[in-house]
Amino acid sequence: MSATAAWHAALADLLSRSHRLPPDRLPVAVNAALRPLDVTATRYVVDVEQELLRPLPEPGRPTPDPLPIDTSLPGRAYTEVRARPGQDGRLWVPVVNGTDRLGLLEVVLPAGADPADGALGDGCRAIAGLIGHVLTSKLPYGDALHRARRGAPMAVSAELLWQLLPPLTFASDTVVVSAILEPCYAVGGDAFDYALDGTILALAILDGVGHGLPATLTTSVALAALRAARRSGAEFGAHRHPHAASLKLPGPRRT
């Protein structure tokens, strides 16, 4: 079997395993699919603060320390969304879902393998891409993946709001949307939303009056109402108020 065919077989194996895969068994499934290639992988997910890459625990293997994003080679691979070889027979491959950066795949290569080998790099990127899709699809089904991303307890208000937000990053051939929410563990009534339909991009920034859970409940209802109206075909005009930045719960902007 050629190297390319072997990677395709591993990809098909992981895809087959993914349909009934519990969230906390993702690391085990990945390494089981890669075993015929004599490759071992560790999966890292970006934390809520966007500061560290945190490893997903795997039974029977020691859990490595988190990796800093701003001051490490793996962090550069994640930031630049580009695979980078290490000096110790490792390959660091970003894990994305679409264009939403989720984490990093650390691949320990077989002895004598060349990190610059094209077939090897293509195989690692394909596996990392599938991991990104599986990771996103498994998040709603358990808590293990959520716990791995957190360095502190999350307030009830933040727990509610994070479940309602769209992905932090979206890109197409014509537009890029990116957002961040702070303080990430204790957000108040701040939120954002976007939707791309055809050539129309609807954007919304919401700020519920007050703090904590009451503000989050207000924003949650407003966000649901906005989406319900938009999905039923309601038309929203662009808001041109000169003090729009200080208004509470503004309507969506269209570009």
CATH class value of the largest domain:
Alpha Beta
> CATH superfamily of the largest domain, called what?
GAF domain
Query: In the CATH classification, which architecture of the largest domain applies?
Result: 2-Layer Sandwich
Uncertain stretches: 239-255
Describe this structure in words.
- The chain is built from seven helices and eleven strands.
- The protein is elongated, with a radius of gyration of 21 Å.
- Helix 1 (3-18) packs parallel to helix 4.
- It has two domains: 3-147, Beta-Lactamase (2-Layer Sandwich), CATH 3.30.450; 154-254, no CATH class.
- The protein has helices spanning 3-18, 26-34, 73-80, 118-138, 144-148, 156-164, 212-231, and strands spanning 40-46, 52-55, 67-68, 84-85, 90-97, 100-108, 169-171, 176-178, 190-197, 200-207, 253-254.
- It has 255 residues and is α+β, with helices and mostly antiparallel strands.
List strands and helices in order, with pairings.
Layout: H1 3-18, H2 26-34, E1 40-46, E2 52-55, E3 67-68, H3 73-80, E4 84-85, E5 90-97, E6 100-108, H4 118-138, H5 144-148, H6 156-164, E7 169-171, E8 176-178, E9 190-197, E10 200-207, H7 212-231, E11 253-254
Antiparallel strand pairs: 1-2, 1-6, 2-3, 4-5, 5-6, 7-8, 9-10, 10-11
Helix pairs in contact: 1-2, 1-4, 6-7
